Amino acid sequence: MNVAAAFLSGLLLGSGLVISGMANPAIVLGFLDIIGDWNPALLFVMAGALAVALPGYRIIKGHKPLFADEQLVPTRRDIDTPLVAGAVIFGIGWGLAGICPGPAVTMLGIDPKSALIFLGAMTAGIVTRLMVARFSRD
Length: 138
What we know:
This protein has six helices and no strands. By secondary structure, the chain is mainly α.
């Protein structure tokens, strides 16, 4: 049942990304180009996501999930150097490519070459980070 719920959640997210145009890097880059030909489409997508997510978090608070033993809501509230560094690196990558991880997977069906290049680079970054973390503990 967990796999089916995860699959349906991913299908819903991917469909939303395609329908909203967020799998198209040109639309994302248009949003980030505030000096040039700015495209506010992503702002409306974000507002729609918040309109669903904020009440959703209030509703689930204190309830047991249907397909898990416990809520998996983040509890940390501190802002540390790794968080800021990760956000900066993510933002630079997003600004350069117009792609973030969710839409990159969705893009596999739309523009496989670009998606595979991005996913390969993202995977290399993840592996590098895991290796650094592992060797810094030893």
